[in-house]
UniProtKB/TrEMBL annotation:
Signal peptide: none
Species of provenance: Candidatus Desulfovibrio kirbyi
Co-factor requirement: Mg(2+)
Name of the protein: Fructose-1,6-bisphosphatase class 1
CDD domains: FBPase
Length: 333
C-alpha cells in the first residue's frame, strides 16, 4: 500500500473519474508541487528569518504573516502556469485572480487558503493549505465572471488540504471517497498511507474556541453544554481539543471523529470561516468520509456564497454530533 505514489494513484484513477481528464490530473500535480514547495519553506522558516508578521493586514482584517505571503505567492505563481485554470481565488487576495492571457487557459477554477492557521506559525504548530476545485459552467468562454466562482459546494470537482505537521500529508477527494498521502521527505513523494478515510459515526471530542462564550447566543451555549453533558460512545465525557488551525482540527476530527465548531457570535454574526476556501472544501471531505457539515441549520454544501469572501458558521465532523447541533438550533428557532 505504502508504495503507491500520488502520481500513480491519479493516473490509475484517471479513467474512473468523470472529471479526471489529463488536464485535471495536471492541475492536481501542480497543486501537489506547490504544497511540497510550501512544506520545504515552512520546515526551514526558523532558519531563514521568515517567521513573524509582515506588518500588513489582509483583506480579512488579519495580520499577514511572512509565510502567509510566501505560500500565497508560491500558489499563484505555480498554478497560473498549470494550463488547467481560468481563474483563482485566494484567501489573501481581495479580488478574483484571472489567469493572464500569456498563460494557457483551462476550464477549472481553484479556490484556496494558502496557509490556514497562520497565527500558529511562530509556535511551530500545524498549518495547512486548503483547496477547492470548481469547473467553469459549461460552454462559458472569455473573461471569467465573479458569478461563475460563486458556486454551491456540491458542485466542487475536488477538494482537499495539505497539512504541514510532524509529517506533511495530502488529503483529498475527487468525489470517490477521501484518501490520505504522507510525504516521504527522502524521496520527495506523497505515498498512499490512508486509503478511504471514514469519520466515525459519533466521536468523543468537541473542538471550539470557548473564549467566545460571552458572545454566544443562548442556542449556541446550549449546543456547547450538550457536549459538556452528553456521554461519548466510550461512556466518558467528551474531551475538549482546540488547535486553532482549522485544517489541523479538521484532520484530527477526520481520524478520531467528533466535531469542530465555529459558531456565530455577537461580534461575528456569520462566524469566522470563509465559505469558499475553508468551509466548503472541508464539508466536501466530511461528506465523502461519511460525516456531515452544517451551518447549524442545514448543509454547508448547499449554501451559495454572495461574495468571494463570504463567511459562514461551521459545525463539521461525525454525523451524529453534527445532527445533535442542528436539533438544538432547530428547537431554539
Ligand atoms: P486563517 O485562515 O487566517 O488562519 O484563519 C482561520 C483560522 C482557522 O484556522 C481557525 O480554526 C480559526 O481561524 C481560529 O480562530 P479563533 O482564533 O477565533 O479561534
Ligand atoms: Mg484559513
Amino acid at each position: 500500500m505504502a508504495d503507491i505514489t500520488v502520481t500513480e494513484y491519479l493516473l490509475l484513477h484517471q479513467k474512473q473519474s468523470p472529471h479526471a481528464t489529463g488536464q485535471f490530473t495536471g492541475l492536481l500535480y501542480d497543486l501537489i508541487l506547490s504544497g511540497k514547495t510550501i512544506a520545504r519553506r515552512i520546515t526551514k522558516a526558523g532558519l531563514l528569518d521568515i517567521l513573524g508578521g509582515t506588518g500588513e493586514v489582509n483583506v480579512q482584517g488579519e495580520d499577514v504573516q511572512k509565510l502567509d505571503e510566501i505560500a500565497n505567492r508560491i500558489m499563484i505563481y505555480r498554478m497560473e502556469r498549470c494550463g488547467a485554470l481560468c481563474a483563482m481565488s485566494s484567501e489573501e487576495e481581495p479580488e478574483l485572480i484571472r489567469v493572464r492571457p500569456e498563460f494557457p487557459h483551462g476550464d477549472y477554477i481553484l479556490v484556496f487558503d494558502p496557509l490556514d492557521g497562520s497565527s500558529n506559525i511562530d509556535a511551530n504548530i500545524n498549518v495547512g493549505t486548503i483547496f477547492s476545485i470548481l469547473r467553469r459552467p459549461d460552454g462559458n468562454r472569455g473573461e471569467v465572471a465573479l458569478e461563475e466562482v460563486l458556486q454551491q459546494g456540491v458542485r466542487q470537482v475536488a477538494a482537499g488540504y495539505i497539512l504541514y505537521g510532524p509529517a506533511t500529508m495530502l488529503v483529498f477527494s475527487t468525489g470517490q471517497g477521501v484518501h490520505g498521502f504522507t510525504l516521504d521527505p527522502g524521496v520527495g513523494e506523497f505515498l498512499l498511507s490512508h486509503p478511504d478515510m471514514r469519520i466515525p459515526q459519533q466521536g468523543h471530542v468537541y473542538s471550539v474556541n470557548e473564549g467566545n462564550w460571552k458572545n454566544w447566543s443562548a442556542a449556541t451555549r446550549d449546543v456547547i453544554d450538550w457536549f459538556h453533558n452528553c456521554p461519548s460512545p466510550t461512556g466518558s465525557p467528551y474531551s475538549s481539543r482546540y488547535v486553532g488551525s482549522l485544517v489541523a482540527d479538521f484532520h484530527r476530527t477526520l481520524i478520531y471523529g467528533g466535531i469542530y465548531m465555529y459558531p456565530p457570535d455577537a461580534k461575528k454574526p456569520d462566524g469566522k470561516l470563509r465559505l469558499l476556501c475553508e468551509a466548503s472544501p472541508l464539508a466536501f471531505l466530511a461528506e465523502q468520509a461519511g460525516g456531515k457539515a452544517s451551518d447549524g441549520m442545514g448543509r454547508i454544501l448547499e449554501r451559495k456564497p454572495d461574495k468571494l469572501h463570504a463567511r459562514m458558521p461551521l459545525f463539521i465532523g461525525s454525523a451524529d454530533d453534527v445532527t445533535a447541533v442542528e436539533t438544538i438550533y432547530a428547537k431554539h428557532a
